[in-house]
Amino acid sequence: MLQRVDLLPPGEADVVVHVEWSGISTGTEKLLWLGKMPNFPGMGYPLVPGYESVGRIVEAGPSSGQTIGSRVFIPGSRGFRDVRGLFGGAAGCLVTPGARVIPVDEALGDKAILLALAATAYHAIVDHPPELIIGHGVLGRLLARITIAMGHPAPNVWELSAERAEGAEGYTVLTPESDTRRDYARICDASGDSNILDSLVSRLRAGGEITLAGFYDRLSFAFAPAFMREASLRIAAEWQAQDMASLNALITAGKLSLDHLITHRQSAGDAPDAYRTAFGDARCLKMVLDWRTQA
């Protein structure tokens, strides 16, 4: 159930945003839900999760650089009393520095909640376009779409779930067993599977590279096969401002679509059921909470 928390008073550089929609992350938020999130600065319970929120600015401080009435993307907030904000976006009203919010195209509607995940995907591969992507969830689909949007050859994508194998747009989805290639130069994992490295190393060519774009607790791998291939491991971290700008340029130019990625929508008042569906139903690619009906 939803509960009320107190907001910190906004400062001169802050904005107050009435949230319209927020997305549920099946990576970090699932770890928070299960109590398995690794320790981060600001970690602790109770907390407000979420970093995929979109809403309207209803107050703008004189130094915020923002305008009342603008629709913006909010990558989270720490503006709460007596509760932690990690990442602090899943709330009906947010206080956050104006410098953190990003104006969005009105035409995107609730699809704008995908911007953080899309920017994360862009950041992971902008200089390392993959030939193989692991996982055909929302992140995997964005990685594949962005690879093509940047003008690179269409990658292969591995997916074990028949329900998630559908919906490819310009690339091929395979099971690992049906993929005979063992000479990939670049592989990007979006599965978050902590036990996947050995199988990926076996598919690399000499000098190949694996990018870890999921979120993991601990990882391990057999050293000898990686040694024989002189394999490289990259860890893709959080998106940066230039990633979001470049991503928006691809969307504006019509090279990248965010269509057909949101599969489920529920009222924020039904958040418990929405989280269970997001984390437990393989048919749910992306769940959006609608905050517009909350008082």
What do you see in this structure?
By secondary structure, this protein is of the alpha/beta class. It has 7 helices and 15 strands. Strands 1, 3, 4, 6, 7, 14 and 15 form a 7-stranded mixed β-sheet that branches. It has a 6-stranded parallel β-sheet with strand order 10-9-8-11-12-13, with helices on both faces. The protein has a two-stranded parallel ribbon with strand order 2-5. α5 links the parallel β12 and β13. The longest helix is centred in the middle third of the chain and has 12 residues. The relative contact order is 0.16. The mean pLDDT is 93.
Secondary structure: elements and pairs:
Layout: E1 14-24, H1 28-34, E2 47-48, E3 53-60, E4 71-74, E5 84-85, E6 93-97, E7 102-103, H2 115-125, E8 132-134, H3 138-149, E9 156-158, E10 172-174, E11 184-189, H4 197-201, E12 204-212, H5 223-229, E13 232-235, H6 241-252, E14 264-267, H7 271-280, E15 287-290
Parallel strand pairs: 2-5, 8-9, 8-11, 9-10, 11-12, 12-13, 14-15
Antiparallel strand pairs: 1-3, 1-6, 1-15, 3-4, 4-7
Helix pairs in contact: 2-3, 2-6
Which short descriptors sum up this protein?
alpha/beta; seven-stranded mixed beta sheet; 24% strand; six-stranded parallel beta sheet; single chain
Brief account:
By secondary structure, the chain is α/β, with parallel strands linked by helices. It has seven helices and 15 strands.
Sheet with most strands: 7 strands, mixed
User: What is the number of beta strands?
Assistant: 15
Shape: globular
| Tally of helical segments | 7
Rg computed from alpha carbons, rounded to a whole number of angstroms = 20 Å
Which series of helices and strands comes N to C?
Answer: EHEEEEEEHEHEEEHEHEHEHE
| Structural class based on helices, strands and sheet pairing | alpha/beta
Strand coverage percent: 15-25%
Helix content: 10-25%
Give the low-pLDDT segments.
Answer: none
Mean of pLDDT: 93
Distance between the terminal alpha carbons, to the nearest Å? 14 Å
